[in-house]
Amino acid sequence: MTSASRTVPFAAFGAATVLAGSIGHDLLHMPLQISDSLSLILDAASSPSAWSDFRAHLSEASYFRPMRYATIKVVSDLSNGNYALGYRVFHAALVLVFLLLFVRALQIRDRVGLAAAPLALTVFVGIHTFLGTVKEIYPTNHFLQVAVLALLALNLTQTRGGLLVDMALLLTFGFAALTLESGLLVWVVICAAWISGMPGASRRTVLGATLLLAGYAWVRFGLFSTGLPTIEERTTGFLFERLDPVDIRETFGDRLAPFYAYNVVSSVLSVLFSEPRSGVWVSTKALMSGEPAPRYLVQVGASLFATGLVAAYVVSRLRSGIRKPVTLADRHTVIFGVVLVANAAMSYVYTKDEIMSVAGALYGLPVFGAAVYFLRRWPARSHTWAAAAAICLVCMVGSMAWAVRAAGVHHVLRSQAFVQRNDWTRLEREWRRDGNWGRYADSESLIRELRSQAISTRVVNPYFEPRWMERVFDVDY
Amino acid sequence: MSTTEAPPALGQAQWRLTMLACAVGLPGAVLIMASALMLGGLPFGADPLWAIEPMTLSEAAALRDNGEVVRLLELGADVNGASRVREQILEDHPLVLTPIEAAVAAERADMVELLLERGARMDEAMWTRLMCFSMGVKADDVLTLLESRRPRASVGNCDAAQVPWKPL
Fold first, then answer.
1. Fewer beta carbons below 10 Å: N end or C end of chain A?
2. Around A99, how many Cα atoms within 13 Å sit in the side-chain half-sphere?
């Protein structure tokens, strides 16, 4: 091994650590969120154990996420009373693991790979589905947890395999499936890895994971009669607006198949083209209004570049006579494709950027593979100067668009921090109105302490940010 | 020109590879280096991503910064004290306003409610003054809120009320 080849992986992991560090720094400035978090934090603080939380949430109406509650309790106990810091540090640590697992999956070995690594990292961080894994601390972000577990499973399938790897994969799947419904995608990752020929995924692994999946279905639907989410659960995007459950019923009646199909197709398109967002065609709507903000151009342009790169790669491989995956890039492309479809299928009831975070996390893999593939072929190609310059220009613009998107994560997190801190000032008024104040009367001192921590967290007022930021960077949909 | 003619000379090919590699990798690399610089500056107190602009209580009220309003009040700021609001926040020129006047000027009923909860004065004279000011700046939500907090003895006559300014 040369010194250069030893340095390259370190440089790639170093770059990932720096990006994770900058996002982690943001997260440490984020006040805890109230609407989806506070009651969970209070419940965890007063519950006797993680196991009791796990058991208490085995049987619920539409969702089956007992491990999520157990995780919240574990972090609660580990934070030793400093809940705000504990949950934020846990979140920041998960983001670091998330990025390191992504870079590890890329298996960067040489300088060509290293040259494409910044693009891969900015795609990974810049895609809008990533925002769902960082913008809110729920108090443990289950979308992030599941995406991390999916990447862990992928990394395990890239090893040489064996009994220990099999057991680790089954544990990963079990943990993910019990954390969030999207966790079932870990099973899809394992199956797709096996189909594509990843060495760590064997027939035995797939069989074991499938048995676990069957067990999950039996426990969820048979033993505890936990149903599936219905359209009555929440609002969702449709064409140019958001529909609430009543609107959906009025529009589709009982013939919901077209609505479900719309959600699935929207989810696929959203990852590939950044449009629609959570089901709403925001860029198209902005374009039709005649005043599209530059961010729409940046987002859709960046996605057209990256998806175009992957499409060109697939076409090139098929033209070369490759009919089944041979290289790591081939395998990553297959796995991403399968997970994308499965992830979108799981969004049939309602579509949301966060739900697609597993597919979004894998999107950077084929983009990286395609970039490295074309970089390696480039010296052997003979282009005119004009053609070469045009290709370089397209790559530069596409790569810049992704860098802008990745930089925009900080802007979104600052905006979220401002909103979430303000929410704490309305807490008492709103909780008294909703009856929560009485319900959590025993936790009043803890609520006041959390509120005090949130208020004392200094955040940036959006007024003092340059105006161009809100036009160029992404917003929270 | 064909793209499949004789392969380029080695030096030329290497140069082209470098160009394309830079085109693909440079923007992301710049972001990563900027992030590293930002992280490196943190131990020395430099934090460009979270640079906090100090503001007065009235500015916080005008800029819908509920969190900062509560923080400043808990640090001992006077909820009824007038303070400076720099130019461009509400008007083209600097103003001196009480927090509740700033909240009305910014049409923030939510902020008015917060300040009232926190002890902002609301006697007949102040109520009339704020009502007239709200009508002047067309703060409909604030008007609705103030109407629900109307003191018994208030008459609501704007003729003699002194409002911070009258919009054109």
1. N
2. 30
CB spacing of A395 vs B20 below 8 angstroms:
yes
Q: Any bridge partners for residue A236, and if so which?
A: A243
Please report whether residue B116 resides in a domain. Answer: yes
Domains held by chain B: number: 2
Nearest Cα neighbor of A256 from A277, A228, A230, A221 is A230
Q: Quote the pTM value.
A: 0.92
Mean pLDDT of A182-189: 97
**Range list of H helices, A180-227:** 185-196, 203-217
Tokens standing for A106? 């890329």
Amino acid of residue A45: A
Best residue of B24, B42, B90 to probe chain A, by most A CBs closer than 10 Å: B24
Say whether both B68 and B133 belong to one domain.
Answer: yes
What is the residue-averaged pLDDT of chain A?
94
Check whether residue B68 and residue B42 sit in a common domain.
no
Query: How many alpha carbons fall within 13 Å on the CB side of residue A292?
Result: 15
User: Which are the contacts of A414, defined by CB distance < 8 A and separation ≥ 6?
Assistant: A26, A29, A459, A460, A462, A465, B49, B50
DSSP state of A278: T
Q: Is residue A258 part of a domain?
A: no
Spatial contact of A464 and B53, defined as CB atoms under 8 Å apart: yes
Residue B4 C-alpha, separation from nearest chain A C-alpha, in angstroms: 6
Task: Specify the DSSP element, H or E, that contains A84.
Answer: helix A83-106
* ipTM entry: 0.93
For residue B3, the model assigns a pLDDT of 45
Q: How many residues does chain A have?
A: 477
For residue A240, is it within any domain?
A: no
